[in-house]
Design brief:
Helices cover 29% and strands 17% of the residues. By secondary structure, it is an alpha/beta fold. The protein is globular, with a radius of gyration of 17 Å.
Length: 259
């Protein structure tokens, strides 16, 4: 009933006769949107535009979508997210959008769907793997605020409300650890000054107790904003290339920082 907006990024070598794995590049808001509204030239200001383009070049279809609960629409559209952070601002909208795209574009292979995000996107990408393991197969989740009970009040309480009974119970990713089926790479910086590393450690503990296989990358001396770190970018690329594309990535490939 309600339109949602997004963007599709294809590799420069795109061939409509082929089938491509799909990657959902997610940031769930609720304070900002993920889908770029312009064609920015600046690398930093346009990170969420250039980042999916670079990933698409490896042979993926990368999609950004802004589901119900994200801003810059009506208040009713935004209010959907309040007190419901466990829905990651429309994961069901993301799946519906991808299915609608795939019905129109047969070159999108929904048997191979990955997802990644940073910060709240790290929460959302992990949530996608745990809540919808039959749809999402591979995720790279970095600096994720996996439990708002130990997150900064500026974000957690603003969008989930004051703690009242068990209203924070369902949003904790650790509560769904037993659902993990696909490949999950968790990453955090040990000097994170925004999302405390304890949130990832709690999730790791739950995954271990559930006897689940997963991967973990700890980046020493990195604060919260390491999504542009060349080493981390390579590890994220490699993870999708190996587990979603089914190709062995080149060993030790070095991404050079712009001069």
């Amino acid at each position: 009933m309600t339109d949602i907006y997004g963007a599709i990024f294809r590799p420069s070598t795109f061939d409509a006769a082929k089938k491509y794995p799909v990657i959902d590049a997610i940031y769930p808001g609720p304070q900002i949107i993920r889908t770029a509204k312009s064609f920015p030239l600046d690398q930093d200001a346009g990170f969420w535009y250039w980042d999916p383009i670079s990933l698409a070049q490896l042979g993926f279809i990368v999609v950004t979508l802004d589901g119900l609960g994200t801003p810059f629409r009506s208040k009713a559209f935004h209010d959907v997210s309040y007190g419901k952070l466990e829905e990651a601002d429309g994961l069901e909208d993301h799946m519906a959008g991808l299915k609608q795209f795939a019905s129109k574009y047969p070159w999108m292979d929904l048997s191979r769907v990955g997802i990644y995000g940073h910060s709240a996107g790290g929460f959302a990408s992990t949530r996608a793997m745990l809540a919808y393991p039959g749809f999402y197969k591979v995720a790279v989740a970095s600096a994720g605020n996996h439990d708002q009970r130990i997150n900064i009040a500026l974000w957690g309480e603003k969008y989930q409300g004051l703690p009242n009974g068990d209203n924070y119970r369902d949003q904790a990713n650790a509560s769904l650890a037993q659902n993990l089926k696909g490949k999950l790479l968790l990453a955090y910086g040990d000097m994170d000054d925004n999302v405390h590393p304890a949130m990832t450690i709690r999730l790791v503990d739950a995954l271990i107790k559930a006897n689940k296989d997963f991967d973990l990358l700890v980046l020493p001396n990195r604060s919260h904003s390491f999504e542009n770190d060349p080493y981390f970018i390579r590890k994220r690329w490699d993870y999708f290339v190996e587990h979603l594309l089914g190709v062995k990535p080149p060993s030790g490939f070095k991404i050079r920082s712009p001069e």
